[in-house]
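Example record

The entry below shows one chain as it appears in the dataset: sequence first, then structure tokens.
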Amino acid sequence: MEKIRSSLLERIMGIEWYVTDISHYLSLEIKLNSKSFHVYEVYDGIAILNKSQVVKTLGLSKQEKTYTYLLLEKKDIDTIQALSEICRKLNMPFNSIGYSGLKDANSTSYQLISIPSKYLGRYSVGDIIKISDRIVLEVMGFSDKPVMRNLHRGNYFKITFELDYNLRDRVEKALNTIKLLKYYPNYYGLQRFGTRRPITHLIGKYIVRGEWDKAVEYIISYPFPNEDPLIRKARILAEGNHIRESMNVYPRKYDYEWLILKYVSEGLNPLTALKKIPRQYIELFVNAYQSYLFNLTLSKIIEYYDTYTKTIDGMIECISPLGDLRPCIQVVGLNMNINFRSKLYEIIKEVLLIEGIRIDYFNVKELKVKAYSWLRPAYIPIINFKWRFTSENSKLLTVASFILERGAYATNILRELANRNIDKMYN
């Protein structure tokens, strides 16, 4: 397998290799937003677009029960923020809401959630509940069980991007190359680390290392060029230690950044401030760091063993989200069960040494967070990859669609096309 180095931005996230030669002849500017990027949860092979079939598959009732199942359509907002807005609107605790997975903020996405019916009042199947301009709910049915994490099997992606007519032949060659790929390395994608500001894993790193001041500094400071101008201004003020002014400028109250600014402005020390934000954010940061360590581990397997589909010593076969057996890598965390003499452990030991951490660091006692190990397949199948060219207002468009299993990232397929322009994907 020819190995070509990834872009600098991706290497910061532990993604070190391309697996095709497309980067030699193509570097597309693909813009992902709510108009061009659509994501639909898939249940037992059925996209949530087919509402009646999903309702039948899940055995939902038309009669009110303990939980109301709703189709969440959201635009240009991440799942956690959308769920937080729903909870505030309905005056309900966050841990009462059920959802199966996280969806990209820079998209129009469709996913299933559940809410205890007591918080909703009386609604019927098909009723629409508008939370905001970016968040709309539709009642799908009722059940005595909530939506649980990982209920769906995968996601159906549909991406549209514009290109110059003179690139058509090269784009067609690249798309055919991807279509011929059976499998792809199961890297965690850009959005796992923050699309406009990919540093959530760094916040997680400082949390597990107990460097609370650095964690808070990375949360409120370090502006990135693609951020909202007001948020960028707020971060610049925070860098200059103008915390109160930064909080007043920050445009979205109740975001975790705003909360940290508020607590720091009140004189709380960094650790106490971190304790006061919702725990799901702390867990998200630590999990992002674990994802970064997984990416580094997978990159080193590709580098040292020239493969991402074969089992190397120390890997464990596990059941994938699609139900098949596949070689899997243990993500660094508590309760790892690994052969300390294996080739995989030698790689993980090298990664831990580079990062200056130990496995027991993932028991963050001060914040009452324990981050456990889990198994993740080393590669994913690319299912039903299709594409076509179309014209619109004298523009040449490419429309690509495919299915990936739950936990896989569409941007990992698109990165082969964008390569050196990966930083422009979310502009």
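Notes for this example: The domain at 46-143 is CATH 3.30.70.3160 (Alpha-Beta Plaits). The chain has a mean pLDDT of 94.
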